[in-house]
Amino acid sequence: VDFFRKLIEETPAARDQDHVPVVIHSVPQMPSRDKAIMRGDESPLPQLLAGLRSLEQLRAEFAVIPCNTAHYWYEDMLRDGGLPIIHIVDAVCDTLATDLHGEGVIGLLSTDATLAARIYHDRAEARGYTLVANTPAERQALVNPAIDLVKCGRLEEAGRLFERAAMQLLERGARKLILGCTEIPVGLEAIRSTVMPQAIDATRSLARAAVARSRE
Amino acid sequence: VDFFRKLIEETPAARDQDHVPVVIHSVPQMPSRDKAIMRGDESPLPQLLAGLRSLEQLRAEFAVIPCNTAHYWYEDMLRDGGLPIIHIVDAVCDTLATDLHGEGVIGLLSTDATLAARIYHDRAEARGYTLVANTPAERQALVNPAIDLVKCGRLEEAGRLFERAAMQLLERGARKLILGCTEIPVGLEAIRSTVMPQAIDATRSLARAAVARSRE
Predict the structure, then answer these.
(1) Most Cβ neighbours (<10 Å): which of A12, A28, A158, B123?
(2) Which of B5, B18, B153 has its CB closest to that of A13?
């Protein structure tokens, strides 16, 4: 929902017909991406591929996946999903390239699995960015419970925890904050957090990249 | 987007997997429903049917259409679309049945075409409700321009116009207000309108009906 809203917000439109055509496959009955990576539990890849193939069947020309952690399976999805996929970290790096002037450390708020799998680190470091993330203790006390709160609709409680995690990164010198899990902007926007002006919302970056590609 | 958000808000869920599986076909490159009804312009029915068949191809078990005016083609869509469709006015009447105690006139905010085609009148009168709508002058000055403002993202301006149209119906004795065009709640919620406690949001009624049917 948050991605779809941002897709529309990022579209210059004056009437229905100006909006980009979209098909959405939102079937949350799949194994946890986080547990598959962190504990070797059942992989969500078969369901991710089934979703991509459904979109391809409806003649989608490319796909975006508004779940950062799912990008662990990016190469598999690209090979077997049947259509091109815009990588969420590439979209974020494109936003960083326009927003950030000069050197600096970038804060990364994300799940344990996104960090462990270096989903942001590998691509962002290749483009010259240095990332700083929350400590395991901060993730356990703040980020992880806040993600669960968003999943059950308790957005303001979640936002206050995400904000504390964000403040830790700012105190450690981060000049920008990547919101690298799609639950994070939902929580921070619900409390109209003061950290938002420094945030790069991966969901919005992905929406912007999708609108640009669709309009090409 | 507004419907999808309300679908999630109406779902009791504690984790990803509790949310209802959804496929969305959002392809706004179709003729105006309003102009097809009011001026005999090109019909959107072929595209509406193509959308329904796409959903059916992905094994959707039933469909909802968050556009009140599109229900003009309800019987055609039911016959040729390939899957059951919850009628938005039935969903609204179900909400009226639980919200309204005793007699009373119901205000209806909607497009010219929804009124001309008696999309609400026929079904609501069959269930014993009396409807009062805005005058042609009010629709031309308030409702119609507000709908266009929502389509280009100017939500607060739209909300103020919708609110004035709603006040007219309340002054004429309406005890409840049906928001019978999906642009209307988007505008009124953007300004946190004081009429919302008296409103029956067709989008939310449809979301609630869809969640109930999906969980069956």
Answers:
(1) A158
(2) B153
Burial class from Cβ neighbours inside 10 Å (0-12, 13-18, 19+) for residue B122 reads exposed
Residue B176 dihedral angles phi and psi, to the nearest 5°: -135, 155
pTM score: 0.92
Neighbours of A199 (CB within 10 A): 21
Contact B22 A21 (CB under 8 A): no
Q: State how far the Cα of B120 lies from the Cα of B68, in Å rounded to an integer.
A: 9
Interface of B with A (CB under 8 A): 1, 4-5, 8-9, 13-19, 21-30, 32, 54, 57-58, 148, 151-153
Here the tokens at position B162 are 């919708």
| Residue whose token pair is 């779940």 | A67
Contact B152 A24 (CB under 8 A): no
The pLDDT score that the predictor gives to residue B100 is: 76
> What ipTM goes with this model?
0.91
Amino acid at A118: R
Name the residue of chain B whose CA is nearest to A151's CA.
B15
* Average pLDDT of the residues in A145-154: 92
